[in-house]
Amino acid sequence: MNRNLVYFLTVTISLSFLYLLVLFFVKKVQKKKTKLLEKRKNFEAMTTESPIEDNFQESLERGLENIETRFSFFRKFMGPFFLSLWGILIVIPYLEGASRTYTSILVAIITVLISLAARPFIENLFAGMVLSFSNTARIGDTVEIDNQYGVIEEINLTFTTLKTWDWKRYLVPNSKLISKEFLNYSLHDKYVWASILFYVEAGTNIELLKEELIKIISKSQYFDQKNYEEPRLWCSNLEKDSIQLWLAAWATTPANGWLLKSDMRMAVVETAKKQGIKFQLGNHQISTKEQPPFSS
């Protein structure tokens, strides 16, 4: 049998098999992503009244449409890609008689031009493909990136849309999502160990403060009283004029965790007023007494 014919049949059969295998894999991943999205019960970074009548259904439909559009592109892209690859492999044997120098120069020029003109687009497109076939970030996941807290609304071919807690849209290039660290609160589960850090003046009755804070936080609607341990208050550090305290409690979702931390802060303020405690949050001092706040 002619050598070129054997090469032609080998390349054609191999690429055809690889094309069908990749097509099957794409469809399988799409089906899995769709099922996971349909199981989600919330698409908000924090629980609030939505100005949209049925925001959950709209978010679900947008997410399903985004998955279909993205994977439809991959399926349509595979045909021309494998056809082009087949053409290149078929032509290679006939290039043996051509000047290798001219061929190398031509390939180098084309490569440089493509890399200079389309590098950002190609990087983000490749990153979009990686995100589509991995579980690093999925539609509906609650994440925090660049100090922006929200829910992933869409994963497009070149960028990802993050719906922040205040309903703004933060656009992130896909290449950034696979090259930079970010927090994903929904990667394996949605449980959140919500916590706040604050300072009280030296000499504060910690036991009395602890008793009152745990009592208040335990009644919060965002704290799961049935399945988790009671809220905790730890002394995390001792300083010259203050005591560093860490208040923490379990929440079932990132959205509830956000609101639970709000309840915690309000509980600290109210308890401090009630017990006449002077306390500090970060670099800001708040005092419930007449004398000046203590210095850190």
SSE diagram, text form:
Layout: H1 3-38, H2 55-91, H3 100-132, E1 142-145, E2 148-155, E3 159-164, E4 169-173, H4 174-179, E5 183-184, E6 192-201, H5 206-218, E7 232-238, E8 242-251, H6 254-275, E9 279-281, E10 284-286
Helix pairs in contact: 1-2, 5-6
Description:
It is a single chain. By secondary structure, the chain is α+β, with helices and mostly antiparallel strands. The chain folds into two domains: 188 residues, no CATH class; 95 residues, 2-Layer Sandwich (Alpha-Beta Plaits). The protein has six helices and ten strands; from the N terminus they run αααββββαββαββαββ. It has a five-stranded antiparallel β-sheet with strand order 4-3-2-1-5. Strands 7-8-6-9-10 form a five-stranded antiparallel β-sheet. α5 crosses α6. The termini are far apart. The C terminus is likely disordered.
